[in-house]
Amino acid sequence: MAKKTTFLGALALAVVMAAPARAEGPTAETVVATVNGTEITLGQMIATRAGLPPQYQQLADDLLFKGILDQLVQQTVLAQKTEPTLTLRQKIQLANDQRSATAAFAIDGIVKSAVTDAALQAAYDAKFKDFVPGTEYRASHILVDSEEKAKEIKAQIEGGVDFADAARTHGTDGTAASGGDLGWFGTGMMVKPFEDAVTSMKAGELKGPVQTDFGWHLIKLVETRTAAQPTLDDVRDELAAELEQNAVMAEVEALTAAAKIEKPGEGIDPALLKDETLLDK
Questions:
Q1: CATH code at 135-226
Q2: Does residue 124 contact residue 235 with C-beta atoms inside 8 Å?
Q3: In the chain, where are the structural domains located?
Q4: How does pLDDT run across 51-74, given as a tens digit for each residue?
Q5: Which of 20, 131, 169, 178 has the fewest Cβ atoms nearer than 10 Å?
């Protein structure tokens, strides 16, 4: 019985060893076409599709496959014809484009590592740990180009004309259509003369003319409220941008410090930057 089991086991092993290896499925390196010996791969097609506008990505798979493959073949034959005759200007532009794209890939990697949920929460906690509620203001204004005009309009309002109606009639900026409504804003969001006027007013009060770089304003303070601490979601984009910038700057500074950098061209006349004829020589 033991000999039979051994025989059957050996037979099974022989069958397994003799069976052909199962073919692997297509990969990114799978060649889908060759053009004069230059390979076009499935990975190149996938990357091309990923870069298409959404409306093209919704096309049927077979139609998109054929279209992308034909496009890559056409691009390849054009590139093969053109590469031997590229001008100096074109070669420099290609080198610049490749450098820029490669640097962009590096930045993408830095950003993905820097902007995490934990990093966002830590940045939020640090930024608002000493938060003190301030005051927000809702005001309307009428902007005109002269003090005399502003005084005339103010007299009309004090005589009974509705502020919003006067703003629609006389206002010269984009808020005129909405009766001069500026919405809610906090300190630091308006130019100083305007902010100084608003922060010294009481709800319902009319003040002006107030001069800024934009012209002459009549201001009506509608109401005030205590500013609530923003939530993490409220400032997520702002914090993400700060994290991205800080991470990229830190990485660039570290790489620059570690690199051997020589600048023999620092003595060149800066005006030569405008001499594009050098690219054609």
A1: 3.10.50.40
A2: yes
A3: 31-111, 135-226
A4: 999 999 999 999 999 999 999 999
A5: 20
